[in-house]
Amino acid sequence: MLEQYIPFVGEETLQELFILSRKLKDLKVLHVNSTYKGGGVAEILQRFIPLMNELGIKTDWKVFKGDEKFFSFTKKLHNLLHLPSEKGISSEEFVYYLKITYENLKEIDTENYDVVFIHDPQPMGLIVNKQKKQKWIWRCHIDTSTPDPRAWNFIENFLNSYDACIFHMPEFVYEKIEIPTYTILPSIDPLHPKNIDLSEEEIKNTLTKFGINPEKPIILQVSRFDRLKDPFGVIEAFKLVKKKYDCQLILAGSFASDDPEGEEVYKELLNLIADERDILVLNLPPDSHKEINAFQRGATVVVQKSLKEGFGLVVSEAMWKSKPVVGSNVGGIKRQIVHGITGYLVESVEGAAMRIKQLLANKHLREKMGFHAKERVKHRFLIIRHLRDYLLLIYKILN
Ligand code: UDP
């Protein structure tokens, strides 16, 4: 399978990867997160694990289980790590987190691995089972540069026992962190059903199947139903655009089992657009990869108006399909979009509307930006680069 990446990254890059992986042969690696489906972390792990194994590094993926109460708390914690708020963390919540962690400790065997990667705050407490010879790494997918101090104190109870942590970007690292930190940018997989080429016919058929008019310009945002993705702001921007251009808005999303807020946001959106023509809110099963692919390819302009964002894989996914993306000037979005070259970075609803209009008006501009967008992803955000970064980091931590 790895050979199939040669057309995208070249033979030399792949050879480097093989050389590096030989140095790590016989190593046993474990990844733990809290959902198999839904959201960017699961998306990456689904592709990463088989490739690591193909490289000869025995890699397993285990999922930490929780119930709604647990995930409501960890969602609050996630939001608090992004931004301070009035909501604190109660001692009851702390005890419940420990209780669920304890249950998972009985189910998830972490002892038989040399290196353990723990993704995000949900499974962090498993660290209590760390063995002397092991290396444990916390892989944080959140922008924790300005956390709520209580949320930070909470995770610090566990974090300081880790050997290292990884963030997407240096800007995400909280200044008071005490353990070694590294940065690795995420990636997309060009061979994933979500990103492979599709025929014009397949794109059109998929759009039609969902009641989308393939002949009318399409504005698209793909994301979990999450307030931080600002779907409400996208609707406002769309209404401004709509005053001048006849176009459609698709908000395509799904629920993730570790995000109980999704259903509430979805219902609010449905109420809001009940009388709107040309706005579609689609709740898809989390494995609707070909459908998302077709939407992204069929879109005229792709939007990602997040208020806060870890990386925002959807931005690279759209750029890979040669789409100009209008994204908020936050988190990993600002690392992906080159303002004025591959799309636009915006700060407000009005700014988003203005840039969408500009792109709708100018096909040549869309094509030019789309070309640069794809090139950027090819050089910086493909999975082979990501794998290499991980192998280098493991090598460094073990030596
Ligand atoms: N995604 C999907 N279906 C949806 C919504 C999202 O398959 O209805 C995928 C999306 O294509 C991307 C991932 O979920 O691969 C979301 O990752 P991102 O980093 O953009 O956001 P996160 O959900 O991790 O905050």
Automatic annotation (TrEMBL):
<keyword id="KW-0328">Glycosyltransferase</keyword>
<keyword id="KW-0119">Carbohydrate metabolism</keyword>
<dbReference type="InterPro" id="IPR001296">
    <property type="entry name" value="Glyco_trans_1"/>
</dbReference>
<protein>
    <submittedName>
        <fullName>Glycosyl transferase group 1</fullName>
    </submittedName>
</protein>
<keyword id="KW-0313">Glucose metabolism</keyword>
<dbReference type="GO" id="GO:0016757">
    <property type="term" value="F:glycosyltransferase activity"/>
</dbReference>
<dbReference type="Pfam" id="PF00534">
    <property type="entry name" value="Glycos_transf_1"/>
</dbReference>
<feature type="domain" description="Trehalose synthase N-terminal">
    <location>
        <begin position="31"/>
        <end position="173"/>
    </location>
</feature>
<comment type="similarity">
    <text>Belongs to the glycosyltransferase group 1 family. Glycosyltransferase 4 subfamily.</text>
</comment>
<dbReference type="InterPro" id="IPR052078">
    <property type="entry name" value="Trehalose_Metab_GTase"/>
</dbReference>
<feature type="domain" description="Glycosyl transferase family 1">
    <location>
        <begin position="208"/>
        <end position="375"/>
    </location>
</feature>
<dbReference type="GO" id="GO:0006006">
    <property type="term" value="P:glucose metabolic process"/>
</dbReference>
<dbReference type="Pfam" id="PF21269">
    <property type="entry name" value="TreT_GT1"/>
</dbReference>
<comment type="subunit">
    <text>Homodimer.</text>
</comment>
<keyword id="KW-0808">Transferase</keyword>
<dbReference type="InterPro" id="IPR049438">
    <property type="entry name" value="TreT_GT1"/>
</dbReference>
